[in-house]
TrEMBL record:
Catalyzes the synthesis of phosphoribosylpyrophosphate (PRPP) that is essential for nucleotide synthesis. GO terms for molecular function: ATP binding; kinase activity; magnesium ion binding; ribose phosphate diphosphokinase activity. This is ribose-phosphate diphosphokinase. Its EC number is 2.7.6.1. GO terms for biological process: 5-phosphoribose 1-diphosphate biosynthetic process; purine nucleotide biosynthetic process; ribonucleoside monophosphate biosynthetic process. Gene3D superfamilies: 3.40.50.2020. The lineage of its organism: Eukaryota, Metazoa, Ecdysozoa, Arthropoda, Hexapoda. Keywords: ATP-binding, Kinase, Magnesium, Metal-binding, Nucleotide biosynthesis, Nucleotide-binding, Transferase. The keyword Coiled coil does not apply. It catalyses: D-ribose 5-phosphate + ATP = 5-phospho-alpha-D-ribose 1-diphosphate + AMP + H(+). Homodimer. The active form is probably a hexamer composed of 3 homodimers. InterPro entries: PRib_PP_synth_CS (IPR000842), PRTase-like (IPR029057), PRTase_dom (IPR000836), Rib-P_diPkinase (IPR005946). It comes from the Eukaryota.
């Protein structure tokens, strides 16, 4: 639809699967929220050196290992184990979070069932504080009430989806503004400069 409507270049952020870029016959720049996330962690979590980066499912392992490497901290992941087809999954935590600040990282959160379960599991396992950092905060259905009742210090999202209403309804939600990253990507594309600089740097 975007191509047929006349778009000749796409700039997006944290696609759920990077293969989606291959479905277009026009150039696609998939920006990463990671540099902005690293900046937020260093500026807003004073004890970030005693943190552990946690993926709420096995699929996000690559994302959390990349962030953990850049911060030089450890990582953990939560494996959902389904005993039978229709039974609720039990969550198995792989990694040691005891006495650490756990930072859950994922690309999106919709109804927030998984991250709230994951947060409970981390507290049970001895984490001192739990943060969640998500690129796309969809927050549909019971998401806001689930976050309000959960044990998060903060749930941090970018503004790829407008968050003003969610932030009014839930004081735990904080927002990373990524508009400058998109603006800089547009400027660089327009001037024929390299966009890859933005994959590991924040332009502000």
């Amino acid at each position: 639809m975007l191509s047929v409507a006349g778009a000749d270049h796409i700039i997006t952020m944290d696609l759920h699967a990077s293969q989606i870029q291959g479905f277009f016959d026009i150039p696609v720049d998939n920006l990463y929220a990671e540099p902005a996330v690293l900046k937020w962690i260093k500026e807003n979590i004073p004890e970030w050196k005693n943190s552990i980066i946690v993926s709420p499912d096995a699929g996000g392992a690559k994302r959390v290992t990349s962030i953990a490497d850049r911060l030089n901290v450890e990582f953990a992941l939560i494996h959902k184990e389904r005993k039978k087809a229709n039974e609720v999954a039990s969550m198995v935590l792989v990694g040691d979070v005891k006495d650490k600040i756990a930072i859950l990282v994922d690309d999106m959160a919709d109804t927030c069932g998984t991250i709230v379960h994951a947060a409970d599991r981390l507290v049970e396992a001895g984490a001192t504080k739990v943060y969640a950092i998500l690129t796309h905060g969809i927050f549909s259905g019971p998401a806001i009430s689930r976050i309000n009742n959960a044990c998060f210090e903060a749930v941090v999202v970018t503004n790829t989806i407008p968050q003003d209403g969610h932030m009014r309804d839930c004081p735990k939600i904080q927002c990373i503004d990524v508009s400058m990253m998109f603006a800089e990507a547009v400027r660089r594309t327009h001037n024929g400069e390299s966009v890859s600089y933005l994959f590991s740097n924040v332009p502000y």
